[in-house]
Amino acid sequence: MLPNEGGTTHQRPVMSYDIPGGCFFIHGKRGEIMFKKLKEEIDSIMERDPAARSRLEVYLLYSGFKAVRSYRKANWFFRHNMKFIARMISQHSRHKTGIEIHPGATIGKGLFIDHGMGVVIGETAEIGDNCTLYQGVTLGGTGKDQGKRHPTLGNNVLVGSGAKVLGPFKVGNNARIAAGAVVLTEVPENATAVGVPAKVVRLNGEKVGCSSKNLDQIHYIDPVAEHLTDLDSQVRNLRSAIEEVFENGLGI
Ligand SMILES: CC(C)(COP(=O)(O)OP(=O)(O)OC[C@H]1O[C@@H](n2cnc3c(N)ncnc32)[C@H](O)[C@@H]1OP(=O)(O)O)[C@@H](O)C(=O)NCCC(=O)NCCS
Q1: Which of 62, 183, 201 to mutate to test ligand 1, by most ligand atoms within 8 A of the CB atom?
Q2: pLDDT of 14-33, one tens digit each?
Q3: Best of 112, 194, 196, 211 to mutate for ligand 1, by most ligand atoms within 8 A of CB?
Q4: pLDDT (tens digit, 9 = 90+) per residue, 204-243?
Q5: Record: fold of 105-213
Q6: Which of 144, 176, 206, 246 is 20 to 30 Å from 38 by CA-CA measure?
Q7: What SS3 state is found at 133?
Q8: Distance, CA of 75 to CA of 20 (rounded, Å)
Q9: What are phi and psi of 189, to 5 degrees?
Q10: How far apart are CA 27 and CA 11, in angstroms?
């Protein structure tokens, strides 16, 4: 207890910063909220990672979890115009975890960065709630845009390992970006995008261009079969040309 100006005593003032998941002393209602949030973040990771054995393990050993906590601190300093400190925290975290999250990025609750190494999240990237990113993911810019130049992910988006999502477009809620994909254009809600450059191959659980409503097995174009047919007709043309030469001579 400390004496106050009137000579009476009062509770020692405790620093209580508005830093979600921060490491400062927090008391009362605010402390309760902070620990509730922390528990929710850990539980959301445990739900998505079958390898997670205990909350303690996630708290102490998961680099993705540590990186997101550091981001929350850095983001607080960034929003309060202390950009140098913000950058310092994020670079320190990058050094420790291999995950670089710009302090200016906007990240919702329940972000799970699995394994983590090599993840880069740009300054104007926005991430909704309960998204999952695997190692090597880049949410970056193409180098052509100014201002908002990084992607916006909706809620429950999964981005597979090594995928690059480049540019200021939206990736809809529940979308799934395959490992190794390079996404350069908007991805709709409930879609799966794969490949380089990424194409949507599933929408609302159905194969794109092959939904049960317009499934046409007879007129379906198989590119390999088309190519073989083309080659076959070329061989036929060549054969008839050679036969003609044998029959009529070269005509010289
Ligand atoms: C894309 C993914 C999320 C699956 O999503 P889904 O909606 O269930 O899609 P499906 O598994 O039905 O696959 C859809 C099509 O994409 C193909 N596909 C799946 N993953 C792919 C990939 N990484 N690259 C290229 N094609 C892929 C499938 O073969 C399938 O092709 P088809 O239409 O010819 O049948 C999953 O394959 C993936 O890449 N997860 C990332 C996991 C990861 O990064 N793990 C790292 C752990 S360390």
Answers
A1: 201
A2: 333 344 444 445 567 777 88
A3: 194
A4: 999 887 545 555 555 555 677 778 888 999 999 999 999 9
A5: UDP N-Acetylglucosamine Acyltransferase; domain 1 (2.160.10)
A6: 176
A7: strand
A8: 10
A9: -60, 150
A10: 11
CA 182 to chain centre: 12
**How far out from the chain centre does Cα 128 lie?**
10
How far, CA to CA in Å, does 27 sit from each of 3, 15, 165, 224? 20, 9, 40, 67
Give the whole-angstrom CA distance, residue 170 versus residue 148.
12
**Beta-strand pair 126-127/106-107:** parallel
Domain spans of the chain, in order of start? 14-98, 105-213, 221-252
- Considering the entire predicted model, what is its pTM? 0.77
C-alpha 112/C-alpha 40 separation (Å) is 12
Nearest CA to ligand 1 atom 32: 201
